[in-house]
Structures are given as structure tokens and as C-alpha cells.
Amino acid sequence: MFAVDTLLNHGDTIHLGDVLSKQVENDNRVTYFSAICDGDESEADRYTVIKKQVKGAPENVEFPEKSVVLAFESNKNVSNNVSIYYAVPESQYGGGD
Amino acid sequence: MNFYNAVEEGKERNGDAAENRPDGVSELLENDETVGFEEGDSLANVGYSSYPDDRESLYLPNTTAILTSIIAADKVRDQEDLADELGFNRGSQTLSDALEFHNVDLPENVDHTSSPYVDVPTADGDKRVNLREFGNDFYTAYTLYVAAGLSITEISQLVEEPEQEVRRSLAGHGLL
User: Fold this and answer.
1) Residue B48 gets which letter from DSSP?
2) Host domain of residue A86
3) Is A27 part of any domain?
4) Burial level of A27, CB count in 10 A (0-12/13-18/19+)?
5) Of A8, A11, A88, B51, which is least packed with CB atoms within 10 Å of its CB?
């Protein structure tokens, strides 16, 4: 097992295994992500963190194939305005169609 | 058809397009690739509706191929052209960061003037002409109007000169 403890920033890279437990904290528009993952960190897959802005109340929110939703933060001052952090495996970035 | 008969046929149609034209003339005229979002045909491997339009979509896996295909277009010379094609601000830092993220290189040492040379289909194969020489060069005018059978309107769009100027040039070359 290994621990992940990081700020979530759009475009950053993180290592993830099977997430056994996770915790998210939001503080002044900064999102902290902590998790315990199964496996060895040196063999864990690399992921790109992407931030999705969701406004309104969409019926369906889509994510790329094999992506993992990490956290979400809501804007307390604006209703129906949520940011979702998710991670896409780097193996999905092949330059193909 | 010999040279003199071809010229006479051109005079008879008085600026209209020839009825029978060489293969490839349509493709020459239909090339509508223009830099700019929703201007002409898309320069990418996908349509405009699939272009990345925000910070999130600029980082998605399929965006690598979209950026690469736009940059591969001859008309895209630098990041400003790429930004224009995508509909982003020219100085967009978000776009710069995304290019770095996808490890996509921009063209280097490109000529910022578009090439005036085109290959014009004729019955005797493709003939290369300099569009900027249309008004002065008989060969260019003959190739476009007589050999390829283009109309004055079509030539006007190709050489980017008013139709009356094209008509005047053709008349000056003795082709009308």
C-alpha cells in the first residue's frame, strides 16, 4: 500500500493504484486529496489531473474512458456551480483519434 | 484541340466556365481551408464542434491529435494561427500550457507569406503557375482560363482580384 497526499491542480500528474480510502478537504479554493492505494507506488499508474467546471444542473456529466473521479468542490457563493477533479491515465494519451 | 482553337473557344464563352474541364479542377476550387474558427473547412482531423473550447477539454486525450492535425496544416504558421483556428485568444497562456502538456511542437522557420504557386489541372497534366503574375503573365492567364477552363468569377476568387480586373487582364492577353 502507499499513501497519496497532494494538492489537486489541473494538469498535474499523480500516481494512483486501487484507492482503498480517500479524503478530500477544501480550503479557500484549494483542494487537498489524500488516499491510501493498494499496490506499490513505483508500479502505480501515472494519471493527469483535470478540473471540470459544472454549471447549472446537467442531467449527465461525462468523463473520458478509464478516468477516476477524485473530488469535487462547490462554490458556496454561487449555486449550481461545482468543480470536479478527475484523473485520466497517461496511457490514454497516445495521440490517436 | 490545338492552341488557336482553344483560344477561340475561350473567346466564345466570354468569361464563363468551360463545359468540359480537366479532372481535378473542382478540387482546386473547393479548397476552402481557412485559418479561423468556423471559417471555411476545419483544419483539424475533426469538425469544429469537436474542437477543444475550454481549459478542461484542452487537456483531454483526444486533444493531442486535434492540435497535431491543425499544426500540420500548411496555413498554420505559429501559435497565433493555432489560437485563431481554435477560437482562443492569441496570447492565451492556457493554450501555451496545453501545447507543452501534449508535447506538441509548433512549426519553426516558416515563411509567413502564403505561396503564390498552385498546380493547375489541364489536359496535359498539372501546370504550375504563379497567381500573383496573372495580370502580367500570358502563360498564367492561358493556363487558368483556357487550359483549365475556369470562369472569370472562379479566377477572381483564386487570384484575389476583382472580376472586372480579371476580365481586363484576359482581354489584354487576347483571350477574350
Assistant:
1) G
2) 2-92
3) yes
4) exposed
5) A11
Residue A56: inside a domain, yes or no? yes
Gap between the terminal Cα atoms of chain B: 18
- A15: in domain: yes
Most B CBs within 10 Å, among A49, A62, A90, A97, to test the B interface: A97
The string of pLDDT tens digits covering residues B37-88 is 988 889 998 999 999 999 999 999 999 999 999 998 878 888 999 999 999 9
Total structural domains in chain A?
Answer: 1
For residue A33, being part of any structural domain is answered with: yes
**A41 min Cα distance to partner chain B (Å):** 23
CB atoms within 10 A of CB B123: 13
State how far the Cα of B124 lies from the Cα of B76, in Å rounded to an integer. 32
Distance CA B38, CA B33 (A): 10
Q: For residue B140, which phi and psi values (nearest 5 degrees)?
A: -65, -45
